[in-house]
Design a protein that fits this description.
The complex is a heterotrimer of chains A (74), B (359) and C (513). By secondary structure, chain B is mostly helical. Chain B contains 14 helices and no strands. Chain C has a five-stranded antiparallel sheet with strand order 1-2-4-5-3, sandwiched between helices. A five-stranded antiparallel sheet of chain C has the order 6-7-9-10-8, with helices on both faces. Classes of the chains: A mainly alpha (74), B mainly alpha (359), C alpha+beta (513). Chains in contact: A-B, A-C, B-C.
């Protein structure tokens, strides 16, 4: 299970080097910041998922919302 | 970079694979029992007007995709908010598709491998395809489909000897209500999910054939689902089919002709892999197109990667168990209504009124 | 993914020789000019200077310069020196050089110039320069003559049926070989010079009216962008003009046979012949060309279709066999028929390594054997065979280093890889990646590998033409010359995209001539 962390890190690193860095060089700041924020966020979540943290699923609130709107029970 | 163009054929095949993609192994709705074929036919007919709405939307604004249309119709701010909803929808759908696949793999053959690894592998190839663009996905489907459907459908005549006609009798024994409810499930998943193609099919070479592509794609896909579902019921019987998570896989697994043709279930797994790959790639592509439009980014391929990673994350955390996944189908059919029916219809009506006022 | 590494295009620049005209100027004095030339070619002992004068009129003095070994001595003696020395009809009153050019020298190719750069380059290329007293102009006389290899059948592309001639190292001979196959004025041959020091001549050949102008323009642009000191083989050029440099697949074709090159030109492709190498390049190159051999077009179409299908099958085998085997015996034992599963696991029980490690090591061993086989002298081949077969195969199994099924699988993998010698670089990479994926998540990993491979293939383009051309739509018309070959009478169309404007092959059905 733990082996996933280095693999993930390598994959993220590859994407940062080959996909994100050119945006920095080309000075596309909007893309760059969007990319940076999202990729660091996903990296953190990836690590948490691998370490077996129970993260709240967005499916639960959606389910509640849908049941509320359509008046379903359960 | 030149504009992306897909041919009518590629579009149709993409649609077919998209439609049968995850439904090929997921026994979608169990309420209709042996009348599942009626439910599918009804769902197909229910989806026809929606398909018309989708293609009408696209043909009213030739060359523009849904995100552009939304901004045009609802104005800058409201359009962006609604676009965001669609981004969420395709993003979420893609994550669900990824998760379905990893659950399938874990349940069927690799119980010890963590799902995260499977999701990462699949996610990466989808990311690659979505980054390369819709043209590549189109070529992919056009290449794989003619081989795929043959392999898929050849199992039907081969399993003829295991079929028992008694399994689909009696027709409409359980009243019409469960059949309609089931039909509605089939309508939202997978037929009306083709709403996602409104963000893609602005790239069609022949814009006049949009409706034809929609129609033939969905009908062929529906026909394949129909055949496979009927095959499952005929081979396995109602009770086993409704009890299983993945009835198609099991139905093919029983197939064995002599000692020669055996273990044909790998064909189902293979085609499911391809279907999931195409479906998730299209969803990812649609989501990144939307984000690019909202943030005014020129090249959507530049932001595919972070969205793809986020999609993998969502796929990892969206359900906590296989049970939950199958339970979600009941919520999904209501959750999808605004995206699949309400917003497209309203958009079309407002667009038509605007056209009318203008002239 | 690989496209991203595309190298940044350097600015277009002309390949220029060292400019000597800044330091040196031609004058009217012969003696001065001789000193000047000697200075330019100083410490070059092969540089020959020969002075002479006319028998009757001692005022007509001349001097020729050439490089030893690159000229035909007979032509120089008989057609240049002799006429000038013995001629009596040289008109001294008018321009001497005119008179010599028109009445004295027997040569079909004489050029008159006063540019020192041009003179120097021509001498370096093997021409002879004639300087005359009292003239600032120089006659460059073509008297090239050096030994070339005889035209022979290329070792790498032997055929049982078909023409036996292959390209040689001489550009001109190659061009004649090509020209003799396509006797039409539409065959266009354009020269270009590449390499700052080597000044290699390359020739772009295409058939006007069939070749796609866009591709031609793109090719010219890429050739102009090459910035290198020397070209020794067309392989260097093809790597420099490749579409995605980091892809294991090549997007520039290569052949040593004039008949293949001529056939490719007829399909609308563009050829590049490079001086000094027998390997010509063709662009665009699409994936299916890996599987096409020229013999396919000359022999019975059933047989050639079968061989093509075999090649495709070999390709699939060689990339997927180790991965599938490892996936089956580590993850999916239930998919193997029971008796086979039992014997497999019995064979594997005693082996110390996991299957993936065993497969990996054996594949490496096979590659070592192959590499040694190509590099070493031929008479050692027998020894290598014995070492490979007996020691590494049989003894390794008996010593329980590896299992017999694994040896069989790896041997089959290697042998089927040899059916496609041109693909071998790509195949090794793909095979190992598939193996790695399969060792992670079994057959699903393998499937993802295949999906990734197809992604890459569909994404690739060769000079704007999709790499998987004619495989991506599966039209019957496109498929006629892919994994099967239909009879010639049905091959009426050239491939899409490549021959854009002129797709019909035969003249009778409306094709332009």
């Amino acid at each position: 299970m733990m082996i996933i962390i280095p693999i993930c890190s390598i994959i993220f690193l590859l994407f940062i080097i080959f996909d994100l860095a050119p945006r920095f060089i080309e000075k596309q700041w909007k893309v760059f910041w969007f990319y940076t924020v999202l990729i660091s966020f996903s990296f953190v979540i990836h690590i948490l998922v691998v370490l077996d943290f129970k993260l709240p699923s967005p499916a639960v609130p959606i389910k509640r919302l849908v049941s509320y709107i359509f008046g379903l029970q359960g | 970079m030149e504009r992306e163009i897909i041919s009518t054929k590629q579009g149709t095949f993409m649609m077919v694979i998209f439609v049968i993609g995850s439904s090929i192994v997921l026994g979608s709705s169990v309420e209709a029992k042996q009348d599942i074929w009626i439910a599918i036919v009804v769902a197909l007919f229910m989806s026809l007007p929606m398909l018309f709405v989708y293609s009408k939307l696209l043909t009213s604004f030739p060359g523009k995709n849904l995100y552009y249309i939304l901004e045009e119709v609802f104005g800058k701010v409201a359009g962006k908010i609604i676009s965001l909803l669609y981004v969420w929808y395709s993003f979420h759908l893609g994550a669900l598709v990824l998760r379905n696949f990893s659950e399938f793999v874990q349940v069927i053959s690799l119980p010890e491998t963590p799902q995260t690894i499977i999701i990462i592998f699949l996610g990466l190839v989808c990311l690659w395809a979505a980054k390369a663009g819709i043209e590549i996905i189109g070529r992919w489907t056009a290449f794989i489909f003619p081989v795929g459907w043959f392999v898929l459908l050849i199992t039907i005549p081969l399993s003829m000897s295991k079929m028992h006609l008694i399994n689909i009798k009696p027709v409409l024994h359980n009243d019409l209500k469960p059949v309609l409810s089931s039909a509605f499930s089939f309508f939202t998943f997978p037929f009306a999910e083709t709403v996602i193609f409104t963000t893609v099919f602005n790239t069609l070479r022949n814009k006049k054939k949009t409706f034809k592509v929609y129609l033939s794609g969905t009908v062929v896909g529906g026909a394949i689902i129909l055949l496979l579902s009927v095959r499952n019921i005929l081979v396995l019987g109602v009770h086993i089919t409704t009890d299983l998570y993945f009835p198609s896989y099991m139905a093919v697994r029983t197939l064995s002709i002599g000692d020669f043709i055996q273990r044909t279930e790998i064909t189902v797994a293979t085609f499911y892999t391809i279907g999931v790959f195409i479906k998730a790639s299209v969803c990812l592509y649609a989501a990144s197109k939307g984000v690019a439009k909202i943030l005014n980014i020129e090249k959507s391929s530049q932001i595919v990667a972070p969205i793809g990673f986020l999609m993998m994350n969502l796929a990892c955390i969206v359900y906590s168990s296989t049970m939950e996944m199958f339970d979600w189908i009941n919520t999904y059919k209501y959750y999808a209504i605004p995206f699949q029916i309400i917003i497209p219809v309203i958009t079309l009506i407002i667009a038509k009124i605007k056209f009318y006022v203008k002239n | 993914m690989f496209n991203r590494f595309k190298k940044k295009k350097s600015k277009g620049h002309e390949v220029k020789q060292k400019d000597v005209s800044i330091d040196y100027m031609l004058t009217n004095s012969l003696q001065r000019n001789i000193e000047l030339m000697k200075e330019i070619f100083n410490s070059d002992d092969t540089f020959i200077t020969r002075q002479f004068e006319n028998m009757q009129n001692k005022n007509i003095k001349g001097c020729i310069f050439f490089i030893e070994g690159m000229v035909n001595n007979e032509i120089i003696n008989e057609n240049i020196i002799k006429p000038i020395v013995i001629s009596t009809s040289i008109n001294v009153k008018n321009n001497v050089i005119d008179s010599i050019l028109q009445h004295v020298i027997f040569s079909n190719s004489v050029e008159r110039t006063s540019e020192i750069n041009k003179v120097v380059e021509s001498i370096a290329r093997g021409d002879t320069a004639l300087f005359l007293e009292g003239s600032g102009e120089v006659l460059i006389i073509s008297a090239k003559g050096w030994q070339t290899r005889a035209i022979s059948e290329p070792e790498g592309e032997k055929v049982i049926r078909g023409p036996r001639e292959g390209f040689t190292e001489s550009l001109l001979i190659n061009l004649t070989l090509l020209r003799r196959k396509l006797i039409t004025p539409d065959l266009k041959l354009n020269y270009k010079v590449i390499g700052v020091k080597s000044r290699t001549r390359v020739c772009i050949c295409y058939i006007n009216g069939i070749a796609n102008d866009k591709i031609l323009k793109e090719l010219n642009k890429r050739l102009d962008n090459i910035d290198i000191d020397g070209i020794m083989d067309s392989g260097t050029i093809s790597e420099l003009i490749k579409d995605s440099p980091l892809s294991p697949f090549k997007t520039v074709g290569s052949t040593e046979r004039p008949d293949i090159l001529a056939a490719k030109l007829l399909e609308g492709r563009i050829g590049v012949i490079v001086d000094g190498t027998p390997v010509a390049m063709t662009v665009p190159f699409v994936f299916i060309e890996y599987f096409q051999a020229n013999e396919d077009y000359y022999i019975n179409f059933y047989f050639s279709s079968i061989s093509r299908l075999l090649r495709v099958f070999c390709f699939m085998l060689t990339i997927s066999l180790p991965a599938v085997f490892v996936a089956l015996i580590t993850f999916h034992q239930e998919m193997v028929p029971t008796p086979l599963a039992i014997s497999l696991s019995a064979a594997r029980q005693i082996v110390p390594f996991p299957a993936v490690v065993g497969a990996f090591l054996l594949l490496i061993v096979f590659e070592i054997l192959r590499e040694t086989g190509t590099r070493m002298p031929t008479n050692l081949g027998q020894a290598l065979g014995i070492v490979g077969a007996v020691i590494l195969g049989q003894a390794a199994v008996e010593a329980k280093f590896t299992s017999a099924p694994m040896v069989i699988i790896v041997a089959l993998t290697g042998i089927s890889g040899l059916a496609l010698p041109r693909l071998k670089g790509a195949v090794i990479v793909i095979r190992l990646i598939f193996l790695l994926f399969a060792s992670f998540i079994g057959l699903y990993g393998f499937m993802f590998g295949v999906i990734g491979l197809l992604n890459h293939l569909f994404e690739l383009r060769s000079f704007g033409v999709p790499y998987m051309l004619s495989l991506m739509n599966l039209d019957p018309q496109d498929l006629q010359d892919t994994s099967v070959r239909v009879p010639w009478m049905y091959m009426k169309y050239r491939p899409k995209f490549i021959a854009l404007n002129n797709r019909i092959r035969n003249a009778s059905e409306g094709g332009k001539k």
